[in-house]
Write a structure and sequence with these properties.
By secondary structure, the chain is α+β, with helices and mostly antiparallel strands. About 50% of the residues lie in helices and about 15% in strands.
Length: about 400
């Protein structure tokens, strides 16, 4: 950490001071189904939700490697809190790609304004004069209870073009009875319901503009920082809390088993090779995933800052590594579950909570190994990138 700029060292230090309370409230967060107002304020005060926000709107513009590492730290204490910190925390970076008028509407009066999201295009979109009308139901909007805006995904019927629509809280309803789950329960990822909400053109962000690198926000945010690949930014937003959840699970396992005596054999569990092997593996896998995440984002940022593009093969590799982190980390913790003893069945157990949360994260589309692995392998084999499809949500 000594090689980090002052602002980034301060961010990591501020996040570290929050971990004991986040950890102490983790069971309560799961029971309540939402991150508490108190913790949201603490995260806000630490700069988590302004970490990747443009400076002209009060943001910090921290390196993504630092932001993701901070997210992993939070998730190590409470995966649900880390997930909300990551997903809600990254949205200012995407809002910076919207037209300046949209950015002003979100942040001019409140630099701490936050947005949740639901990018799967499950609702309907209709073009009207000056913009679009949105109706229907959007699912899994993590952290919506602490947000005053939402980013909703939709496909425009005439042309099949995917866009993100920036919608204020007054224009949607939250279905508070839509969230009953066993993994990531504390994220409050509830459904949003809209009935003909009007969204003006300037509050939309087109994947076509992303593909052609002509995002409206470049008019005011044309720094290399905002030209990072959006698909990778999103994928690591999902991978970082998974890595953190696994790190926290390993810590919990060590805390429990360092002094545990086997009820069956009366011997120290710490001396059992059946325990040592999966623990050693989990330690290496989780720490390696964390270090690789940091190295990947420093590498990509260095390329852009030096005026060089990020090669497609490197982008495909990073996308696959993000998905692989989910599977490797979850598998490593699964092995620890098998040697944790009878207390593993306790519903309030830390290891069990982290494992359930990891299983939920691994079901996210960003953890799709077949898709990302195919892109990376084909790139190494010399194949051209697949053709652009305007209805797809992300562009690599």
């Amino acid at each position: 950490m000594s090689d980090l700029p002052v602002a980034e060292r301060r961010f990591i230090a501020d996040v570290a001071t929050l971990l004991p309370e986040i950890r102490a409230r983790a069971a309560e967060t799961e029971r309540q189904g939402v991150v508490s107002v108190h913790i949201i304020k603490a995260l806000t005060d630490a700069g988590v939700f302004r970490a990747v926000q443009p400076r002209q709107w009060g943001g910090l513009e921290l390196d993504h490697a630092t932001f993701y590492d901070g997210v992993a730290m939070i998730a190590s204490a409470c995966p649900s809190t880390g997930w909300v910190a990551s997903v809600v925390g990254v949205h200012p970076w995407q809002i910076a790609l919207f037209a300046e008028a949209a950015q002003r509407e979100v942040w001019a009066e409140d630099p701490d304004a936050r947005a949740s999201s639901s990018l799967a295009p499950t609702g309907s979109v209709r073009r009207v004069d000056g913009g679009f009308l949105l109706s229907g139901r959007w699912h899994f909007s993590s952290g919506v209870d602490c947000c005053t805006w939402a980013l909703l995904g939709g496909v425009i019927p005439d042309g099949g073009e995917f866009r993100s629509f920036l919608v204020p809280r007054r224009d949607f309803e939250v279905d508070h009875d839509s969230w009953h789950v066993t993994g990531l329960a504390g994220t409050g990822s509830k459904d949003l319901v809209l009935s003909g909400a009007f969204v003006p053109d300037y509050r939309t962000h087109s994947v076509v503009d992303v593909y052609h690198r002509r995002d409206p926000g470049f008019a005011v945010n044309d720094r290399p920082y905002f030209r990072l690949p959006w698909r990778l930014v999103f994928s690591y937003t999902i991978a970082a809390p998974a890595i953190g959840a696994a790190l926290g699970a390993v810590d919990a396992f060590i805390a429990t088993n360092g002094t545990r005596v086997s009820a069956a054999y009366g011997a120290s569990v710490a001396r059992d090779p059946a325990v040592a092997r999966p623990l050693a593996r989990a330690l290496v896998i989780t720490q390696s995933a964390r270090m690789r995440l940091i190295a990947t984002w420093r590498d990509m940022r260095s390329l852009l800052d030096g005026g060089e593009p990020i090669p497609y093969e490197r982008r495909a590799q990073a996308l696959y590594e993000a998905a692989l982190a989910h599977h490797d980390c979850t598998d490593a913790i699964d092995s620890l579950m098998a040697v944790n003893g009878g207390r593993t069945m306790q519903t309030d157990g830390v290891l069990q909570r982290h494992f359930r949360d990891l299983l939920a994260m691994r079901n996210h589309p960003a953890a799709n190994l077949e898709f990302s692995g195919t892109l990376y392998a084909q790139a190494k084999l010399g194949l051209e990138p697949p053709p652009f499809v305007p209805s797809q949500r992300f562009v690599l």
